[in-house]
Write a structure and sequence with these properties.
homodimer; 707 residues; alpha/beta; eight-stranded parallel beta barrel; five-stranded mixed β-sheet; globular
Chain lengths: 707, 707
C-alpha cells in the first residue's frame, strides 16, 4: 500500500472504532418517534443535499434544520432543495396553482427555475413550507422516490389541537407515560430540549395547537408566573406553527380577582376576563385562546348563576376576540343533577343553544356520548347543531383501553367515528361536520387528549406513538384512513420494508377491536373498575351517583343485558336524525356492535352468526384474547428485524396484555354467569378464579388517577 | 489511486457520513453521568483490549461488559486485562497480600503470570473484581496511566446505602429530579434499561444497598404484588453487588395482617413479621432488611404501645436474622409531644437505649440534630452510644439547599461532619464512629437520601450528580476528602484537563458555604418557608406546633438573635462530650459558624472580623450572593470546553440561583431589620422589595412536597 492508502486505512479504522463507541452509547429507546432519518437500504451513499431557503424566519430555519437532520435519506443525485413562499419572485413566475393551499397547505415538486432543476417546497406561508418539508421527509422515510415527486396537501381542519390533561404539580390525569412534559418548576428559565422536540413531532404531523393544562383547571395557571411559563413554551413552539392555549377555570375571577361572583353577565366578571386576556396577549401575542370545561363533574360554570353555556362561552369569547383568540367550549357535561340517561345530557343542554354562540366559539364534543369507551356510537350532537362549529374530541391516551401497556391502535376508532353517517343531511358524515364542509363553517377543529409524558419514548410504548401520529394525520385529513396512516407510521418508526410494515400493520389494524372484544363486546360500556378505570368491574353497584356504576350501563339481569335507549327506555335514540333513530330503535336494524348500547335484549337472542347473544359474547371475549396471542406471535417473528430495546419493551407489554385480556374475559364471564345463571358454551374454558377473587383485586396506585 | 484505495476512500466517506448522523442524534444530556468513557486527547488510537474473565458469574460479566464500554480509554499497548478472584490458581500462586481486602476490596496492578505480563484485577469476591474494574476505569478517566498502576482499596464502611423517599404513586418526597425511577406500575414485568444503568452508576462508586421506598412508608410495599416488584429490581441489581431493602411501616400487622395491635412484644405481631420476612426472603434471598421510621412525624411505632425503640427494632431484627438481614432504625424522632428543644429529642430517647439493641440492628442518625440544614453541628449521638452501631444519614437531595436548581456541592458538608471530633474519646471523629474503628463494630454504615429521579440527567442537574458521586465515594472511604472527590468527578464528567477541572472544582468547593451564607449564616437554621422549604420564611410564626416555625429556631428579637442551647436555655450542649460541651457553652469558644445554633447573642456582639454580628450577617449574605456571581463567571469562561446542552442547563440554573440567592438575602435582611430596627451598614444595598412583598410569595406547586 502507498503511504496515502495506509493513512486512509488508519483513518477508516479509527472511524470504525468511533462508530462502535457511538453505536453503543446511542440506544433505540423510542425518543426519536417516527422522526427516524436512518439511511434506507436502497440508498448506498448519500450526501447532505444543498438546501436553499428563501426566507429567514424561525420557521424557515426550523424547516432547513429538519431537512439537514434527514440528510441520510437523500441520494447523491438529489437536486438543490429550494424552500420559498408563493410570493417569492421566482416561484410566482411559475404560475403554480397555489392559492388553494390556504395558509397551511404545501406543494413539493421538481420545477425548473431559470436553467436550474430544483426540488421546490412552496406554500403561501412559512408554516406551509415547514409542513411541506416534513411531507418530503415522510415521503422518503416511507420509501418514496424523488422522481416525479408531487406532494400537494391542504389541511381540511383548521384547529388540530392536543389537550394535555396535565396538572400543575406534574401529575397527568389519565396519563400513563410518566409525569407531565412541562416542568413548570424550572419554567420559564429552563427550556428543556424536549420542548422543541415535542414541537417538531407535532409539526411533522400537522398539529398546530396545544392546550397546556388540564380541563380540570386550577386558576393558578392564569396567574402572572404561570403566564410567563406558558409564554416560554409558546416561544419554543412558535417556529413550528404551534399555538398555545390554556384551560380556563370559570371561577378564576373569584379565586384570583377577589370578585364575589363569576356570573358571565356580571360586567365586573367580563372586565376581569378582558383584563386577564389582555395580560396574556402581552406575553403571548399569538395566544390561541381558552378551553373550558364548565358545569361538568364538579367544575364551576355559568349554570352556577343560572346562565347558559352560550352565555359563559360568549363572555370569554368577547375577551379574546380583539386579539384573534377563540374559545373551545366543551359539551362534555354531566352530573349536574342525577340524570335520566347520562348519554343524553350533552345533547339536551347544547342542542337548544344552536345559533347562540359567538363566531369565535367552537363547541368541543367527545366522539361518543359517554366517555371515550373502547367503542361508542358517534355523538348525536354531530349534525344536530348546524349553526354551530363543532370540534371533535378524541382521547389519544388509553384511559379505558388498557393504559399504556395494551397495544390498541386507535386509527380505526378515529376513522369509524369520522366516517359515521349522521343521516341529518344526505351523505353527511361526522367528518363532514368536523371539517365544516356541509355548513360552511371556517372555524373547524379536532382535539386529542394527549398520551404524552416524560417517559423516554414519550407515549409509554412504541405503539402508543402511533396513536399520537394517527391523531395528527387524521386531524389534517379526516378521510386519510386508518390503514394508510398505520403503514406510514410503521415505515417511519421501524423501516419501510414490507417484511416489517405488513405484519406490524396487521397487528395494529385489529388491535382496537380486540380490546372491544375482551373488555366491552357488542356495545357494552363503562364496565371498568372505579376511579382509575383499570381492569374489569362490571359488578360495581355501590357508588354514590347512579351513573358512576357499571351496573347502570350494562343493566344485566337474569333475563337479559343492555341499556334500553329506545322509547321503552331512555329514548336516547331520538337524539339522532329521524332516519337513524328509527334504525336504532329496533334491535334488528341496530348494528350488532352497538346492540347493548341501545337495547336490553335476552341472553338467548339469536345473533347473525347463529349463536345466542350469550354464546356470541363468550365468543367475542375469546376472540379478543386470541388476537393478543396472535399479535405476540407476529411480534416474535420480527425479533431480528427490530432493534433490541424497542422490541423487548413491546414484547413485555404484549405479555402483560395477554394476561390482562384473559383477566378481563374471565372476570367478565364469572360475573355474567353469576347474573344469568347460565353455563358456558361447550368447549369454553372456565374462568381461572371465582368471582370473589376478581372482585377482591385492588390497585391503589394505578396511574393517571390524581386524588 | 488504486481500486483498493478508492474503495477505502468511499468506505471512509460513508463512515464519516454515518458518524455525522449518530453524532447529531446522540446528545450530551447527562444520562451517562460520570461513566463517560470518551477517548482522551492523549490517546490518538485505541483498540478494544483483550479481557480475560476467570469466572462466569453475572458480576464477572458485568465487570467485563463495563470494561468493554470503556474500550476507548485504553491505548493500543494495553496488556491483557485479567479478572480473577484470589482463589484462582494463578493468582494464588502470586502470593499477593489479598486477605486484608475483605469481601469488597480490590487490587489492580500489572503482574507476570507464567510468561505473560497482564493487568490483573483481583479480589476475594467477584464484587471486589467489579469494584476494581470501575476503579481501573476511573483511573483512566481521571488521566491516570497504566504504567506502574497499583490500585488497592477496601471500603471502610460496610453498608453504603441510598434511601429513596419514593412513594408508590411515583412522587418522590423531597425529590427534584422528576418522578420516581421505579415504575411500580409496569414492574415486575418491564425492566426499564435505566434500572441496570442505575446499578452500574452505584456500583461504580461502591454503593451496595438501596432502600426502595419512602421512610414515610405505606404498608402496601409489603404486600405480595409489591414484593414481586421489589424482587424484579433486586434481580437487576444483584450482579452489581447491590442489595434491596424496604422501609417497613410499623403498623403493617394491623393494616395487612388484620391484627388488633402492632405491639412489638405481642407474640402474634412478632409472628406476623417473621412470616412476612420469610415471604420476602423466598422472593429475594439476599434481601438486605428493613429501614424504619417510627414514632416520628406521625409515623406509627413501638411507643404507641409504651415500648421502647429497642423493643421495636429487636422484634423486627429477630424476624430477618435467620436470613442474615438487618434493621436500620432511624433515630430521627420528634413531635411525639411538644419538645423542650427539638434538637435534643433523638439523644434523649436513644442514649438510654445504648446496649439494648440486637446485634443486627444499626441505628441511623442524621448528620445533625435538626433536619439536613445547610449547616448543622454534628449530631450529639455520635460517640454517645458506644455499644450501638450507628450509621450516619446524609441528605443528598437538596431539600433545604435550593432544590435541584442551586449548585451546592455537598462534599464539604459530608467531610465537615465526618471530620468533626466528638471529644468522647481522644481524637475520635464522627468518621471513626461511623466506620466502627473505635468500638470495633463490624456493622457499620452510611445512608444517603437519594437525589435521583426520572429526569434524563438523573439528579436534576449535572452538578447534582456530583453529590450522588461524592456520597458513594465518601461512604467507601469517609476520609477521602471533598476536593479530591470533586476533582475525580469533574474529570470523569467533563474531561481530565486542568483547564476544566480546576475552575469546576473551584466553583464546587465553596458552593455549599455560599448557600449557608445566603440562607442560614452563622448557625441559623430552619428559616425556610413552610412545607416545601423553598425560599425564605424567617417570619413564619403561626404554625400549629412550635418547632414547625422558623421563629422557634432563630428567636430573633430587638436585642439579639439565636437559640440559647446553654444552661440558660435548653442546655442541648450538655448532650455533647463534657470537653466539647464546655467549649460550646461559651459563645467565645463556639465556632462562629455555629454561634446562633448554640447562643442567643446581641446584634452588636463583636465578631472575629471586627464587625458587629449584624454587620457580619449582612456581610455573609452578600458573600453568598457574590459567590454565585463568581460561579457564573467561571462557568461562562468554560462555554467552549463543555458540550452545549450540559453547559446551557447549568448556565440557566446559575442564573436562577443568582436571582434566588438575592431573594434570600433581601427577604432575610428585610425581616431582620423589622425585628432589630437597625439600618444596613453603610454601602449596603437595600432589599429590592418591602417585607410584605417577600411574605406574600406563594409556591403552591413546589416539587417534592406530597400533600
Amino acid at each position: 500500500m502507498t503511504a496515502l492508502s495506509r493513512s486512509i486505512v488508519r483513518f477508516a479504522l479509527l472511524l470504525a472504532a468511533i462508530i462502535g463507541m457511538t453505536e453503543t452509547a446511542y440506544a433505540e429507546d423510542g425518543y426519536d418517534l417516527w422522526l427516524r432519518y436512518r439511511t434506507q437500504a436502497t440508498t448506498s451513499t448519500h450526501r447532505v443535499p444543498t438546501i436553499e431557503a428563501r426566507g429567514d424566519t424561525a420557521t424557515f430555519r426550523a424547516a432547513t434544520e429538519e431537512l439537514r437532520r434527514g440528510a441520510a435519506l437523500f441520494g447523491t443525485s438529489t437536486p438543490t432543495i429550494l424552500l420559498a413562499t408563493a410570493d417569492d419572485r421566482a416561484v410566482a413566475a411559475l404560475h403554480l396553482p397555489l392559492a388553494t393551499l390556504g395558509d397551511e397547505g404545501y406543494r413539493v415538486g421538481r420545477v425548473t427555475l431559470g436553467n436550474r432543476r430544483v426540488l421546490l417546497i412552496t406554500a403561501n406561508t412559512d408554516r406551509g413550507v415547514l409542513y411541506g418539508s416534513f411531507a418530503l421527509l415522510r415521503h422518503l422515510q416511507t420509501g418514496g422516490s424523488l422522481d416525479r415527486i408531487d406532494l400537494t396537501s391542504t389541511p381540511r381542519v383548521k384547529l388540530r389541537v392536543l389537550n394535555h390533561w396535565d396538572n400543575l404539580d406534574g401529575v397527568v390525569e389519565r396519563g400513563y407515560a410518566g409525569a407531565s412534559l412541562w416542568d413548570w418548576w424550572t419554567l420559564p428559565d429552563f427550556h428543556d430540549p424536549r420542548y422543541a422536540d415535542y414541537a417538531r413531532a407535532n409539526a411533522s404531523i400537522g398539529i398546530n395547537g396545544t392546550v397546556l393544562n388540564n380541563v380540570n383547571a386550577k386558576a393558578d395557571s392564569l396567574t402572572a408566573p404561570y403566564i410567563a411559563k406558558a409564554a416560554a413554551l409558546a416561544d419554543v413552539f412558535r417556529p413550528y406553527g404551534i399555538k398555545v392555549y390554556l384551560s380556563a377555570r370559570f371561577s378564576a375571577p373569584i379565586e384570583l380577582g377577589g370578585l364575589k361572583t363569576a356570573d358571565p353577565l356580571d360586567p365586573q366578571v367580563a372586565a376581569w376576563w378582558k383584563a386577564k386576556s389582555d395580560e396574556i396577549y402581552r406575553s403571548i401575542p399569538d395566544f390561541g385562546g381558552f378551553l373550558v370545561k364548565a358545569n361538568s363533574e364538579g367544575q364551576p360554570g355559568p349554570r352556577d348563576y343560572h346562565r347558559s353555556h352560550a352565555d359563559g362561552a360568549n363572555m370569554l369569547a368577547a375577551a379574546v376576540r380583539p386579539h384573534g383568540g377563540i374559545v373551545m367550549w366543551r359539551a362534555f357535561v354531566y352530573a349536574e343533577t342525577d340524570p335520566e340517561d347520562r348519554a343524553k345530557q350533552a345533547y339536551t343542554e347544547f342542542k337548544p343553544l344552536d345559533g347562540q354562540f359567538a363566531p369565535n366559539v367552537i363547541v368541543q364534543v367527545k366522539n361518543g356520548a359517554i366517555d371515550f369507551q373502547p367503542r361508542e356510537p358517534f355523538h348525536p350532537l354531530f349534525g344536530a347543531m348546524p349553526k354551530t362549529p363543532l370540534m371533535i374530541e378524541f382521547q389519544i391516551t388509553k384511559e379505558y383501553l388498557g393504559f399504556a401497556t395494551h397495544l390498541a391502535y386507535l386509527g380505526p376508532l378515529f376513522a369509524e367515528t369520522l366516517g359515521s353517517e349522521t343521516m341529518q343531511r344526505p351523505g353527511e358524515t361526522v367528518a363532514d361536520v368536523v371539517d365544516g364542509s356541509v355548513e360552511g363553517h371556517t372555524l373547524t377543529g379536532m382535539a386529542g387528549v394527549a398520551n404524552i409524558g416524560r417517559d423516554r419514548d414519550w407515549a409509554g410504548s412504541t405503539f402508543n406513538q402511533a396513536n399520537w401520529y394517527a391523531f395528527g394525520r387524521m386531524a389534517w385529513d379526516p378521510t386519510l384512513g386508518a390503514a394508510p396512516v398505520a403503514r406510514e407510521w410503521a415505515a417511519m418508526t421501524f423501516a419501510p420494508s414490507p417484511g416489517i410494515v405488513d405484519p406490524v400493520v396487521a397487528m395494529m389494524m385489529g388491535s382496537r377491536e380486540a380490546v372491544v372484544d375482551y373488555m366491552t363486546p357488542l356495545g357494552l360500556a363503562h364496565v371498568m373498575a372505579t376511579g382509575h378505570h383499570y381492569g374489569p368491574g362490571p359488578w360495581i353497584a355501590d357508588l354514590k351517583r347512579p351513573e358512576w356504576n357499571p351496573v347502570y350501563y350494562h343493566r344485566a339481569d337474569k333475563a337479559g343485558i343492555g341499556f334500553d335507549r329506545t322509547r321503552t327506555g331512555s329514548n336516547a335514540v331520538a337524539q339522532y336524525a329521524p332516519a337513524l333513530a328509527r334504525r336504532l330503535a329496533d334491535p334488528a336494524t341496530t348494528p350488532e356492535r352497538a346492540l347493548l348500547w341501545f337495547h336490553h335484549v335476552p341472553w338467548d337472542r339469536r345473533m347473525a352468526s347463529g349463536r345466542s347473544l350469550w354464546a356470541e359474547m363468550v365468543h367475542d371475549y375469546d376472540s379478543g384474547v386470541a388476537y393478543v396471542a396472535d399479535m405476540s406471535r407476529k411480534w416474535d417473528a420480527l425479533k431480528l428485524d427490530i432493534d433490541a430495546e424497542r422490541w423487548a419493551k413491546t414484547a413485555t407489554y404484549l405479555a402483560v396484555q395477554q394476561r390482562e385480556a384473559q383477566w378481563w374475559r374471565d372476570a367478565s364471564l364469572a360475573y355474567w354467569m353469576s347474573v344469568n345463571g347460565r353455563a358456558l358454551p361447550a368447549g369454553t374454558a372456565p374462568p381461572a378464579h371465582d368471582l370473589a377473587w376478581y372482585k377482591a383485586q385492588r390497585f391503589p396506585y394505578a396511574p393517571g388517577n390524581p386524588q
